[in-house]
Amino acid sequence: MDDLKSRLSQSLFWDIDFEKLDIDRSWQSVVIRILEYGTWEQWQAARRYYEDEKIKTATTASKWLTDKAWTFCSVVFNIPKENFKCYTTRLLSPAPWI
Questions:
Q1: Nearest Cα to Cα of residue 22 among 35, 36, 8, 11
Q2: CA end-to-end distance (rounded Å), the chain
Q3: Which helix (H) or strand (E) holds 9?
Q4: pLDDT tens digits, 40-76
Q5: Region for residue 15 given its phi and psi (left: phi exceeds 0; alpha: psi -120 to 50; beta: otherwise)
Q6: Which of 31, 41, 68, 84 would be 58's cystine partner, CB 3.0–4.6 Å?
Q7: Of 94, 15, 65, which Cα lies nearest the Cα of 85?
Q8: Packing angle between helix 67-77 and helix 27-37, nearest 10 degrees?
Q9: What is the per-residue pLDDT for 29?
Q10: For the chain, what are the domain ranges?
């Protein structure tokens, strides 16, 4: 297993102390942050480090992902859009102007 943390940019975690970040304990947050704001190289490193099952769990359980992020994961992992909590949450509470 390569060291994922050394491949991450501190700017991805602007709101926390990067030195104290435990990538094993906070794996779901790390996966989401990389998916939303990381580079392709960081995404590939995350897939090697966490493996696909953990990434699938993190992305399908997340309440808030951009359309681009969940659609990407849906295609990469062949997961129906209805399996993403962020997708079903949006359907339950559409924007007031719609």
A1: 8
A2: 47
A3: none
A4: 999 999 999 999 999 999 999 999 899 999 999 999 9
A5: alpha
A6: 31
A7: 65
A8: 110
A9: 94
A10: 23-92
